[in-house]
Amino acid sequence: MRSEEHAGWERDFPVRYLLVREDIHEEEEDVPWGRCADVEGLFTDPPPLPREVLTLRGCPSESLLVRAVADGVPPVRLLGDGTLSIEPSDPSNDGPHRFWELEDTVVLAQWPTPGDPRRVDIVVGTGIREDHFWGTKRLPSTPLFDLWFPSIRGDGPSGGCRSVDGLFTPRPQRPTPSVHLIGCEPAAPLLDLLRRPAPQEGGPITLRCLDHHGRTMTRYRLDLDTVEARPSVLGGALIDVTVTDPGDDRPTRAARAVWEVWSEGVPTRPNQWARFDAGGRTAWLALTRTGPYVAEGLSGGTYHLDGQHVTDRTGLLLALGEALLGPGAHYGTCLDSVQDSLCGGLSVVPPFTLVWHQAGTARRALAEDVLHHLGGRSYFEESVHLLRERGVTVVLE
After folding, report:
1. How is the chain split into domains, by residue range?
2. Does residue 68 surpass a pLDDT of 50?
3. Measured distance CA(220)–CA(251) in Å, rounded
4. Ramachandran region of residue 353, left (φ > 0), alpha (ψ -120 to 50) or beta?
5. CATH of 264-396 given 3.80.10.10, 3.30.390.10, 3.30.370.10, 3.20.20.70
6. Which of 97, 185, 242, 310 is most buried (CB neighbours < 10 A)?
7. pLDDT for 139 beyond 80
8. Residues forming a β-bridge with 21
9. How far is the C-alpha of 272 from the C-alpha of 252, rounded, in Å?
10. pLDDT, greater one: 302 or 197
């Protein structure tokens, strides 16, 4: 479904959002559910997770996690965000994997596992977000615990353990703020839903966010399980719809100012992202995923990377994307996807030359951002190493 075909109406204000039931299997046409002038309450910052204490029992001493925490020089204390997964050894009897997100994880203590000097017990403080999609909280009969911390290793598990104390405890569910669809022109499926008694259980739809040209900037999921409608404050035959439990797939408040820039169309000037903080730069990088793109397999030539604003990982990726593909594009949203771009596809591929101007800015800013699983190289050093390893001539100035 082309969003441009649904973006125009005879009113004094534009259509900024489309409501669409999308076919995730791409076997059928997407179904329009409505369009609206604006959405209030979409941008929200989730409150920090309550702090909890976990004890990771029996971590192998040869694992990257233990080597970083116990044997590192200096030992790593701040692990940051990560994931804990429990894999059943027999999925046919014990069900699928289970996952927990670990937020802002810090090492509190560590010691040899009693009775097994080849293993280490690690106590961490963290915020825990459980993936409820998989349902059951029953622990598999023979569980395998894996821990993933990008600060230690970005492309695989950092280590494992035999058990985790403190994981299976009750956690209160935090309410999700409501979302209000302002000036909504509902299509037949949404009208049918609104006629049902609450809760409507309408399931998920996609909220397509449009720029002033009708192009879809990005998409977000809304769960239409409970909705209320009333005549719109914008008048006419429009309605305002309140979604009281929309789910937690929401852009942050830092994204609002970024969206205002992109609402004028795909940026055409370089470094427009530079004035934003880390949250704004992350939001900018997310919007680049919708294009534009260049011809497949373009190679050769010399490109210039403006490094004056490369003060964090996201800034490096944004500057690289602009250097190779122009404003509003990206060449990867992490080093793994940069590597994929270097291998081909809708991108610039080696051999080519990249002149990195003011490279010292990134070298200094990312000096403490060390990737322990890659020989202790910094994020800047690994970026340069990856480019050169894949056939790019990198000139640092």
Report:
1. 3-43+178-243, 51-165, 264-396
2. yes
3. 8
4. beta
5. 3.30.370.10
6. 310
7. no
8. 31
9. 19
10. 302
